[in-house]
Each structure stands twice: as C-alpha cells, then as structure tokens.
Amino acid sequence: MGRSIPSFRQILEIEKLKMTSFKKMLPTKKKHEFNEIFDNVKLYTSYLGNASNPIPLESVFLGAIFHNYKQLLKLTKEDTVIDEDSLKNELMSLLETKPEGTILFYRFSKKWYGFVYSLHKEED
C-alpha cells in the first residue's frame, strides 16, 4: 500500500524547494548557511514529524530555533567556566591603568543600577 501523507523529510525538501526564489536572491556565502539551516532541521525530523502541524514551515522554524537554542546553551555553559578571580583582576588592572576606563565603568554601572532599580520598583 502507498502512503497518502508524505513523511516529514519529504515535506522538509518540499519547503526547501518552495524557498528557492529566496535562496537565489542571497549572496553566495549565505546560500551555504541557508542549506545548513535545513540540514540542522533534518536532525529533528523524527520529533517534528510527530508534531502534526498543519503548516509545515512552522515545524521547520521550530527545528531551526531548537537547534540554535542548543548551540547557544552549549556556548554559555563553556563561558560560565570563567574564573571570577581572574576576571576581577583584569577589571581592576584596567581601572588602575586607564582613568578613562574608570569613568566609563562607573557610568555604565550607574545605568545598569538604574535599570535594575526600575525592574524592582513597585508600580503605584
């Protein structure tokens, strides 16, 4: 018996073909990145196929966003390994050697303090 409903991989290829006019307008370097987005979505076809979304492009976007989220989460975990003492030492050496750095640091800190204060301020 034949299938009347295409698999999600087939739907993904159909959506990619629908966007060929958009792809043609991209510069050469960006075309590779466009293909890479769809290749990343292919990693999640078994999950996205179960989503039963009537608009397949939404599933494609969801797969791309999920992959980007995973990559961002991986990068932020790597960045949190930074030693706080070395970061403090770098900041202190910057403030001591460059007086304009001190002025900018305090201005920047004051703006952030105002922002944090406004977030915690109770509304009337």
Entry summary:
78% of the residues lie in helices and 0% in strands. With 124 residues, the chain is an all-alpha fold. The radius of gyration is 24 Å and the shape is elongated.
Notes on the protein architecture:
- This protein is mainly α and 124 residues long.
- The chain folds into two domains: 8-79, no CATH class; 84-120.
- The protein is built from seven helices and no strands.
- Helix 6 (84-97) packs across helix 7.
- The mean pLDDT is 79.
Task: Give the key terms.
mainly alpha; 124 residues; elongated
Radius of gyration over alpha carbons? 24 Å
Ranges where pLDDT stays below 50 over 5 or more residues in a row are none
Rounded to the nearest angstrom, the distance between the terminal CA atoms is 67 Å
- Taken as a percent bin, the fraction of beta residues is under 5%
Mass-distribution shape: elongated
State the major sheet.
Answer: none
Secondary-structure-based class equals: mainly alpha
Order of helices and strands: HHHHHHH
The number of helical segments is 7
Number of domains: 2
Q: Roughly how much helix do the residues carry, as a percent range?
A: over 70%
> Would you tell me the overall average pLDDT?
79
Describe the protein's topology.
Blueprint lengths: L7 H11 L1 H6 L2 H15 L2 H5 L6 H24 L4 H14 L1 H22 L4
Helix pairs in contact: 3-5, 6-7
